[in-house]
Amino acid sequence: MKYCIKTIPKAFFLIVIAQVAITFSTLAQRYLLKPDRVFDGTEIKEGWWVAIQDNKIEWTGPSSQYKEQKGTKEIDLSGRTLMPGLIEG
């Protein structure tokens, strides 16, 4: 009987840790890429940024039109040109 009582708290602790890990791994990741230029497949756009949500392009446009969102990780790409996606022909 002593063995069962000692293992219950350990098992409960492991279940709680597993649940926390699953919760954090499913939280939405949002990034804001801030290059000097964005190539959209046909032309280069100066001063555009790209917002990524859950590994998908959510928004792209002039930096002046970006609406800040809490929890966004900003990635400075100064001096670089970003090509957000390849175009299939």
Helix/strand class? alpha+beta
Radius of gyration: 22 Å
Question: What is the chain-wise order of helices and strands?
Answer: HEEEEE
Extended strand count: 5
What's the structural blueprint in terms of helices and strands?
Blueprint: H1 2-25, E1 30-39, E2 44-46, E3 48-53, E4 56-62, E5 73-82
Parallel strand pairs: 1-5
Antiparallel strand pairs: 1-2, 1-3, 3-4
Please explain how this structure is put together:
It is a single chain. The chain is of the alpha+beta class and 89 residues long. Helix content is 27%, strand content 40%. The chain is built from 1 helix and 5 strands. Strands 1, 2, 3, 4 and 5 form a 5-stranded mixed sheet that branches. A hairpin with a 4-residue loop joins strand 1 and strand 2. The mean pLDDT is 77.
Short overview:
With 89 residues, this protein is an alpha+beta fold.
List its traits.
89 residues; five-stranded mixed sheet; 40% strand
